[in-house]
Design a protein that fits this description.
The chain is of the alpha+beta class. The chain folds into two domains: 152 residues, N-terminal domain of MutM-like DNA repair proteins (Alpha-Beta Barrel); 124 residues, Helicase, Ruva Protein, domain 3 (Orthogonal Bundle). Helix 1 packs parallel to helix 7, helix 4 packs across helix 7 and helix 6 packs across helix 7. The radius of gyration is 20 Å and the shape is globular.
């Protein structure tokens, strides 16, 4: 699943191409993707028709993000909330290449999308005045929902229980500490639930815990103030760095300039189970924590 750095990198990549541009028309091939956000969705053709009518001929005036949601704002102040979930992907194909860039792609890597658009995974297509935006989704877990305003999306509970943004001024040590004190269970699960701080998926939770020298399967109630501060500082170092480098290059994840996201080159533990710790040489341990595969160093992390 794309995590915050990947989603933020995608958002930033799309801004120069679609902000200020008009959507001439929209094609919804799989109505269930605009019929709700639950795991079990009933196709609602009326919602699909409304989605098309409300977005066609609108100009994108803003492109923002809340947690892993990308929010398109239109010239009538309505919004479209996009969540890529596990296998969603957005690909923009401009009518004319900008330098060496012929595709702007982000989200889950789908190899077919580099050679064929639309393809069998293309379920929603936005025809812009300057190119075409494809929403592709292998497992069809993602969703795109239209609201008359951002307030309506908030009142609908769309962003309920989401914690602080790692990049916001409101994410201060005190708030992070208070949030952890309210939680029970192991650290990895708490970091993944998005209720204290958003955007930490499996990759960055492991990397944050390693940098903080804390085992991810520790119970949060056993964390000292010093360890909480170390976790906070690790989040503030890793997330901006990952965004700067375009996220973690899993398979063929591409940046706006056609290069590959390369934060994976800086991974210390994620994906390295059974290999030597880059700090102490101890063989890294793999376990399941918070329901997710977790890698850590028994010597460096306590």
């Amino acid at each position: 699943m794309p995590e915050l750095p990947e989603v933020e990198s995608l958002r930033r990549s799309l801004v120069p191409y679609i902000q200020g541009k008009k959507i001439n028309s929209v094609e919804v091939i799989l109505p269930k993707l605009v019929s709700g956000r639950g795991t079990k969705r009933v196709v609602n053709q009326a919602m699909a028709d409304s989605f098309v009518n409300n977005i066609s001929r609108k100009i994108v005036t803003g492109l923002t993000r809340r947690a892993k949601n990308i929010i398109f704002t239109f010239d009538d102040n309505s919004v479209m909330v996009v969540h890529l979930k596990m296998t969603g992907q957005l690909v923009f194909k401009p009518f004319q290449a900008v330098g060496k860039v012929t595709l702007i792609s982000g989200g889950h890597p789908i190899e077919l999308s580099t050679s064929e658009l639309p393809n069998k995974h293309s379920y929603i297509i936005f025809y812009f005045e300057n190119g075409t935006l494809f929403y592709n989704d292998v497992r069809q877990f993602g969703y795109l929902l239209h609201f008359s305003s951002l307030e309506e999306a908030i009142n609908d509970g769309h962003f309920a229980k989401l914690g602080f943004e790692p990049l916001d001024d409101s994410f201060i040590l005190k708030n992070f500490e208070v949030g952890l004190k309210r939680k029970t269970g192991n650290l990895k699960k708490v970091l993944l639930d998005q209720e204290i701080v958003v955007g930490l998926g499996n990759i960055y939770a492991d990397e944050v815990c390693f940098m903080a020298k804390v085992r991810p399967n520790r119970l949060v109630k056993t964390l000292s103030k010093k360890e909480i501060k170390s976790l906070y500082e690790a989040i503030n170092k890793i997330i901006p760095r990952a965004i700067e480098l375009g996220g973690s290059s899993i398979a063929d994840y591409l940046l706006a300039d056609g290069s590959r996201g390369n934060y994976a080159r800086e991974h210390k533990v994620y994906g390295r189970a059974g290999k030597e710790c880059l700090v102490c040489g101890t063989i890294l341990t793999k376990t399941v924590s918070g329901g997710r595969t977790t890698v850590y160093c028994k010597k460096c992390q306590k």
